[in-house]
Design a protein that fits this description.
The chain contains 7 helices and 11 strands. The protein is α/β, with parallel strands linked by helices. A 5-stranded mixed β-sheet has the order 3-2-1-4-7, sandwiched between helices.
Amino acid sequence: MSRAALLPAGPDPFLNAYWLRHYRTWATEVDELLIQVCGQDDPEIIDYLQACVDAVPHARVWFTPRTDHGTVIGQLLEHTDADLVMLCEDDAFVRRAGPVNFHFAQIEQGLTDVVGCPRGSASPELINLAQGKFGTHQVSSGETGPALWPCFLFAKRSDLFRTDRNFGAAGWPGGTEIPGMGSTVNEVAGDTFVWASFQLRLMTIGTDQKACEPPPFQRLRPG
């Protein structure tokens, strides 16, 4: 299976250069890195960032106006044909070789559908509703919740495209029944990728597949 790392990035050239410095240590574990830099329109800085990207293996970059995080995830997914994707963030770094390959391999070997780190980041009523349906997952860092962070998230591109492709924040007015959740709610909302996380979990209910349950990324680093 082909693999792609997808990086929605902000305009800070030094943060992005620092991220790419660490990318060198695990670049052989993906087939391509796609970067969308948002909110940077200074020609000199754009040239600098393009040079940084050109200096690392199989990486491409786009420069766009400041855009919602979830929208950028969707746009990056459209730019790749990879079977598997890893969602990244510009302030989260992989400093060692090995973990990226390990997590992709979990999906390639059929051991799980999705690898991710749990989060809440939603209205309490929505979190309670999701926990009742999916259970609660807690990691050594103390983070817990039924949703997943849109970072260090490994999944099949085809599964992400089976959602409604709203990877951003989502909200529901009072009296709404959230699709698949089986309950009417008061006014609730979830942060980036919360609703997409629930859709991924709903895909596996009633099957013998495990969804989103491997240990968190930080506990699987070698050494």
